[in-house]
Amino acid sequence: MSKVYTDTVTSTEASQDLTLGGSGDNVIVTAGATLKTNTVKDSGGNTLWTSDGSGNLSSVNAGLAGGNMVLLSTQTASGASSVSFTDLTGYKIFKWVWINCHPSIQDAAFQFQVNASGQTGYNETITSTTFNARHSESDATADLIQRTDIDQAQGTSFQTISVDQNFANDECTSGELFLFNPASTTYVKHFYATANGIQDTPLFNNLRTGGYINTTAAIIELSLKFSSGNVDDGTIKMYGLG
Question: How far apart are CA 168 and CA 162, in angstroms?
């Protein structure tokens, strides 16, 4: 067996393919070694995935998912006014999970909006409905109500998906948001969210929100934020499916 010792192997010209091994050969990365690259393609030149160098994936080939959720991005908010996600392609379903998001302002609502292709400003047209199950620690409040105050009927505001969040040091909101086939140019875009949060009564809120974004244009960006102030702390993950 021959061995070649070198620090760098490059092609003779920029953008020229560099071939390792021949037909039928196995190219082996020794155990304990690390293969570092940001974009991985198959032999046909199809991108399997791209990393931003920090572990956040984009352009993940849907065939790799095998019907399972694929983690595409993780963002940690610390004093951020909003958290935005792009590259909403390659999957039929996108899911965002927000974990322990803490507001800087009392009674802030957690919200989302989107931009369609060619648009800016996060003001797409939404029709939605929300139901709120509530139970206070004192047991004085225990009910299920429709939140007509945050429902939208062809509105363009940020859609509230968690309400009246207390900002005590040990309190936060957590939940999940689903958006269906955002890249479609045929159908309007359905969404639903389930959220948990604590109001200052103290009272526990569970919100169920559903609706549609009334555009057939592809959705290219999604933003999550509190209605006022910043996200003091929290983690938001984006997944793809299908």
Answer: 16
Cα-Cα end-to-end distance for the chain: 45
CA distance 177 to 181: 13
3 state DSSP class of 130: strand
DSSP string, 156-215: -SPEEEEEEE---TT--EEEEEEEE-TT-SSS-EEEEEEEEEEETTTEEEEEEEEEEE--
pLDDT in tens, 51-65: 877 666 667 766 665
Alpha-carbon distances of 55 from 51, 73, 84, 162, rounded to whole Å: 6, 8, 17, 29
> How many CA atoms are closer than 13 Å to the CA of 128, on its beta-carbon side?
31
- The upper half-sphere exposure of residue 213, i.e. CA atoms within 13 Å in the direction of its Cβ, equals 32
How many CB atoms are closer than 10 A to CB 21?
9
- The tens digit of pLDDT for each residue in 196-223 reads 999 999 999 999 999 999 999 999 999 9
In Å, what is the CA distance from 168 to each residue of 145, 180, 190?
25, 34, 34
Domain ranges of the chain: 66-241
Q: Cα separation of 75 and 89, whole Å?
A: 18
pTM of the model: 0.77
Q: Look up the CATH number of domain 66-241.
A: 2.60.120
Q: What is the CA radius of gyration of the chain?
A: 23
Stated as kind and residue range, the H or E segment containing 34 is none
